[in-house]
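Fold sample X.
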Amino acid sequence: MTKAKQEALREPVDRSGKPTMVDVARLAGVSAMTVSRVMNGKGLVRESTRRKVAEAVAALNYTPNQEARNLAGSKPIRVGFLYSNPSAAYLSEFLVGLLTQSGLNNVQLFVEKCEAGTQEAEQTRRLIENGLDGIILPPPLCDSEAVLRCITEAGVPAVVVACGLPDARVGAVSIDDYDAAYRMTRHLISLGHQRIGFIVGHPNQTASARRLEGYRAAIAEKGADAAEELVVQGMFTYRSGLDAAELLLSLPERPTAIFASNDDMAAATVAVAHRLGLDVPGDLTVTGFDDTALATTIWPELTTVRQPIAGMAREAVQSLVRRVRAMRDGEPADPEQITMDSELVRRQSDAAPRIRPPARLPVTAGTRSRAG
């Protein structure tokens, strides 16, 4: 490292009284070098550490010394964020993560909405023409072959987020959707549920299939009811959740629990249950997936799988920054495939199934009791 770069990273005390990297490090309880790694996207840093640094930056309203960055050769990185009609709650969390990490990493963020369908490739090409260093794709575009082909043909690094089966040509940040759905289904079975409905996500998204596979694996392993009528197609939207829940709750033998592939469809299921006069969770357990803000704004609050949406967005920025900086330095820059942890979060929407006493059979004259 050159002397100029060392001086830039050191970032001496700002005599104007503005907070410095040393102040951020002190508040976060880490070293100044760790803060530097977080802000420059170099080296793997634990998610908990990145969060501490981000919180310290926000608390101090810290702005990196631009002169120091220029001396260190930290040219801004231009990143495009292309999205297409995800859940509003999901998009909100994703943007929080993107904006937080972009500020830390000297990233200029270009946000554009892409209408799904025939215009995907054209809008992607238009975004690339802005001279981007990289692109981040959330669901459902993370599974769009047209978008991925356009990006790879242009030679632009990309990171897909929350993709069930990431393309090897691009970087990826995801959770294990199969394992998360498997664990939630096992949890419901452990409560005593045997007849568990499942609302599948959008059929064009690979995460939907992985979650369905996890549900089915747990059902088969524990010998629960595997009737096909218990699996209903959804689209990851609230409206589709209403339709799916109505189908499941109109079955002659309705399920005692419904596991929806995202929180929007789970919230819709709770609404249908209430309309039908069913108590949640007394008459029906309902669980979701994602742990967006919606999970705690309805009643009862949802038991759900916590997918670290904001954290995944931050990690996507970090991964892309590492790759772009390596490419600028002429170093190997293969796409990173990163798997983050998920968590089952219990709240008020799940319970053991209500046990009804068996009907009493009439006693005939010739019947003897076991005790007698």
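Fold sample Y, listed below.
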Amino acid sequence: ELAQLLRSELPKSPFVSSTEIAGAGFINFHLLPSAKLEVVRSILVQGESFGRSTLGGRKKVQIEFVSANPTGPLHVGHGRGAAYGASLSNLLSFAGWDVTREYYVNDAGRQMDILALSTWLRYLELYVDTLGCVAFPPNAYQGDYVREMA
């Protein structure tokens, strides 16, 4: 009943040939062939600017994405975050926003110093320290991946 009410209230469109109720809560719209061709014409005329918008009004927005922290194992989420962040940034830019992109790699500073020390201590533990004298501090990186790197 609700679908029928919605359908009856729809304004006429030069692009729609017909509508039909298609199950609970669904209305199918059938486009005229000319409507489909009009979209193709618009794409050809507008070229690479097809779909571009000024909605963002050149307002500034900063997108921070991916923190690929090399002190631990990388996983599929890092790649997904990179693809999502880059795509979102591109879409916002295309829609007229002034986008600043921040992509963090975290490959410098204290974390890297701790990783280097942790790897060195694991190396000593595995290959040099036959007496078990090397103390591995609790604030060092504890993961098995550190042993693999060592």
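Sample Y note: The longest strand covers residues 60-67.
Also: Residues 76-94 form the longest helix (19 residues).
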